[in-house]
Amino acid sequence: MDLNSDLGESFGAWRMGDDATMLDVVTSANVACGFHAGDPAGILTTLRAAAARGVVVGAHVGYPDLVGFGRRNMDPSSAELVADVVYQIGALQGLAAAAGTRVRYVKPHGALYNTIAHDKRQADDVISAMLSIDSSLVLMGLAGTPVLQWAQDRGLATVAEAFADRAYTPQGTLVSRREKGAVLHDPQLVAQRMLRLVESGQIEAIDGSLVALKADSICVHGDSPGAVAMAQQVRVTLEVAGVALQSFVPGGQR
Question: Which domain holds residue 210?
Fold first, then answer.
């Protein structure tokens, strides 16, 4: 099982998360590309730290929304969205090369991630952008949603993702952050939820029902309170249960 986190999101004097410590825990790092968060110097520092630890790097692309941290819905034209995604991947590729690593996958961020899970037009735009710049890139998307099949139909490899620190609806979608209980904070609870997911392919929904969910990667958000403690507990719990943690990318070192 892969364990990932959203990193590189600090901006200037504004600090977000503990990238260095999180990189000692995760196997893949979704690194911001400057549109929803992140500045070039901070992103480069995170990429160098990932390279030093053998953590696989992905481009965490989003809407151009620094003020809203990429969590506000937008409706760009196809030409705009394709260009925006190409721009972000290209920027991260350049910084990654300078850091001695390379971009292996793409995980859209926030509102873009949730939109393309079901919106075929915007999903096709993101897929087109990836194919135009590097067809070997892997698309990471929400487990159980159509975007994964749409990407596969066009020749992209995909990875289905589950969220350790987010609540799920009975339909298998994420509970909106506007709703009470949408974000989870208890490391032990989070870890046990992920162990059940890995062992049984089920996750407990917010109403207590069990939802079938097939995932290849688990995310702990780097900006969540206590994110490092949660990621550490998830890793320990899975390893004690005999689950091997490694990147989904062939040749990934962790």
Answer: 2-240
